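Hey, resending since the last one bounced:
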Amino acid sequence: MKSSQEIKELFVQLPISSQRQLLDELLQEQELQGKILTDAQEEISGKREKKPCPHCTSKNVYKRGKQKGVQMYQCNDCEKWYSETTGTPLYDIKLKSKWQSYLRCMENGMPIKKIAKEIGISIQTSFDWRHKILSSLNQFVPEQLSSEVECDELELALNNKGSRNLDRESRKRGNDFIRNIGKDEVTVVQVVTAVERKGEKYLKAVASKRLSNEEITKALDGKLADNTILITDKHPSYKAFAKDNPAIQHKALLAKDHVDRNDKSIHLQKVNNVHAQVRQFLRPFNGVSSKYLQNYLNWYAYADKIRGSKTTLKQWFLIMLLSDQAYHYYEMFKQNAVILRT
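The structure tokens again:
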């Protein structure tokens, strides 16, 4: 049997086109075997002997054999049965062998229809899988930001993509909208974005003409630790928010200046850079329905967090397997989702 070094030496002698073809074939073979998912399951099993009950969170549980290779449990407190995948996005999935390929396509920013064609599933299944995966990110939104935090809002057009009964004419292009028609109609979504200078990000979508103190308070409720230095523009609602939260130090600058004229450390360059990245991240999807926007914002923040890791697919599987309430979040989301016609 040849050593790994000998295999590498033979590999580099191949033409570039043959190298790519071989890598694609090896990747497809690995994906069919689901090795990364298996590795993630084994890593979690090694860290915890038993999975806590997803129904009542009790750890007073015991193993009750396996069904189709999946570990089963019963809770001593609520007496309910569950499996290793109960509550996770992988619950009741019959095509797990394709999830590795699906995640690879997601990482490449491929739209739902293109992924469906790429791996041989229906468009509806592709849509459902995406939002099952993204529902696992809800409980991994940062609990609090601290130290120095830049905060600003990104304005996006309200998008009704997928809606069957619009009360207006459909748009011809993404920017073909009139901002805030009439007194009550809202045509924009404000993405409240708070970014630690150390890198942690929190993004919250709010449908609003112009952010009020109440909306900012709701979006940032409990997200800023005491003694945090909050840096914003001179939007009056941020000033009112800071006044209501005296444990926070507030520093403001004129939005048009970008950097404070008297103190160069007071700027919004990090949050402005995040806004540019969010726009770029959303662009391949040809418009994201506003009712699904929060899922995509969570996706952007998590993908950015694990960028540079050599095991990004494994990180996705780990977060899914640890998300015992993801299926519950997905069921809530599905009540507002559209049924796709393919």
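The beta strands are 61-67, 70-75, 81-83, 148-157, 188-196, 201-207, 229-233, 249-253.

Sorry for the duplicate.
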